[in-house]
Structure formats: C-alpha cells, structure tokens
C-alpha cells in the first residue's frame, strides 16, 4: 500500500438523522447509502491525478473490515471500523494522487456479524 492515511473511529453526526453517511456531493464517485452484513461495490472512473478518500460508517455491534483494491487487484487501502450499538463508528483512508490506479476499483466490507449496518463513500476532492 502506498501513501495511505487511515483516520480513527469516531461518531457520525448523520447517524442521529437516521443515515450513517451524508451524500458525498460533487466530489463523490460512490455512495452506498445503506447495506447490512457483508458486501461491497465495484466502480470505475477513478482519476490518478486526484487524491482518493474512502469512508465507511457502521453500527450494530461488532466491526467491519474494509479493503479497497485497484483494477489490477492490488490493495490500496485496508482498515477496520468498530461498529457500536446505537451510534455510528467511522473509519477513513486518504490516499495520495496515483495510489489508486486509473480505471475501476472495488471495495469489500466484511462485517463481524450479519446484523451490522454500514454505509460508504469514495470521493476524489479537487
């Protein structure tokens, strides 16, 4: 993994309104508003010239192991988020431009129990 910064768990202010993560706005490549249990996403359109930020929020007890891979199958980010009962835990990885190869990418979310509720965003801020 090259140039990855992982931010620690926190509490999401959006959780109080019922959502785990707000819409990422115009910088967003992917927004999974809500899912439960193991899952993930595959997408395209990432640019090598911009930084990439992957954020996952979860709740329900347990944890969520998160892995992001470029289209070449190389892991570019990997972290675990604690998912408390009644509030949202949040984890994030910030990657420098070029850390995620241009083209498609995948994000896998492996939850410790199938009752864990999660959301994710992938953004490329300009």
Name the descriptors:
five-stranded antiparallel sheet, mainly beta, about 130 residues, four-stranded antiparallel sheet, disordered N terminus, about 55% strand, about 0% helix
What is the tally of helical segments?
Answer: 0
> Biggest sheet, strands in spatial order?
1-7-4-9-2
Could you give a short account of the major beta sheet? 5 strands, antiparallel
Instruction: Give the rounded overall mean pLDDT.
Output: 88
Percentage of residues in helical conformation: under 10%
Q: What's the oligomerization state?
A: single chain
**pLDDT < 50 stretches:** 1-17
- Gross morphology is globular
Classification by helices and strands:
mainly beta
Beta fraction of the residues?
A: over 45%
């Amino acid at each position: 993994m090259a140039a990855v910064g992982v931010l620690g768990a926190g509490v999401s202010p959006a959780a109080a309104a019922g959502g785990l993560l707000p819409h990422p706005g115009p910088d967003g490549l992917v927004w999974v508003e809500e899912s439960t249990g193991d899952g993930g996403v595959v997408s395209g359109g990432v640019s090598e010239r911009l930084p990439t930020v992957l954020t996952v929020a979860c709740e329900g007890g347990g944890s969520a192991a998160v892995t992001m891979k470029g289209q070449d199958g190389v892991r570019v980010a990997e972290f675990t988020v604690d998912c408390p009962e009644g509030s949202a835990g949040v984890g994030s990885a910030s990657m420098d431009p070029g850390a995620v190869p241009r083209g498609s990418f995948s994000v896998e979310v492996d939850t410790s129990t199938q009752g864990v509720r999660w959301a994710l965003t992938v953004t490329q801020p300009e």
